[in-house]
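Checklist before submission:
- one chain only
- standard amino acids only
- sequence pasted in full

Submission:
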Amino acid sequence: METIFTEKHKLRNSKTELHGGQLVEPFERPSRAQYIIDRVRTVDLGSISEPDDFGMAPILAIHDAGFIDFLQVAWTDWQAEGFKGEAMPTVWPARRMAMRVPTHIEGRLGYYALACETTISDGTWEAAYASAQVALTGAERIHNGARAAFALCRPPGHHAAIDMYGGYCFVNNAAVAAQHLLDKGAKRIAILDVDFHHGNGTQDIFDARDDVLFISLHGDPMDAFPHFLGHGDETGSGKGDGFTINYPLPPNTDFATWRAALAKALKRITDYAPDALIISLGVDTFETDPISFFKLKSDDFTTYGADIAHANLPTLFVMEGGYDIAEIGINTVNVLQGFEAAK
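Returned file contents:
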């Protein structure tokens, strides 16, 4: 399986995250991608390629133009105000407030942020842009006939909504890849999000559409970030009704329970008969992940990689979360090897 990867991910190297009332080293850090690419090389998974550059148009096909403009200038505008730390929102347009985009960077951060843990620092936009190009290159490989490809995206993307960032995400890589495949002639795409956290951004983007089936297995939002989306009764709107499916699962969910939900998801995907399948691949379902509460073990990732392969669809794996950094390479590549072994 070919891996698409760029060292430009290192441009995203923020030093602070708000967690538990403290400023800590971010859980989402450059070493995550390094452990994964090292494991790809160790097991000789396949070729490793630099991404092509598809420009801004595929990103703007998914995201609000004002939001993308903001991401490009946020760090510069923050510095221009003389602020010393990394850019972090401190105020939001909460219930019954006016939904207007402020002029001041403090207000714009709050308008476009869905959470405050994710700071913006030097290089954030450049890394997010490069990450989207990684996903687009993977999608192009699928369009050109590859059975599977691995887009080693960093920063991740599934929390990025039409006009919001947060949860370490700025551009929704999986959504951009899905739209690219549709623009290339696909009629239907399925996105299966197996990250521990709900893919709220992906759901937001495709909520009213029937050409993308979005299914997510995740920690119940009553107990887990992002808290305000991902409940079982959210099924899409308008012509998209029935094309969003959520499987919120409780604390301490074991693999047997999780795999049963996966089987239901894969059955729905098979019935939908998409032209391609995109996996938002987060391995923060691992039993010792520091910010999650599922109990999957390393061998379980191999098993469910094979389960996904049995759907018999062209499949693009797009990297999302996973924060037990010492084990992230093993767990991620286990999924890919499980998929490959099921040929």
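Reviewer check: The longest strand covers residues 212-219.
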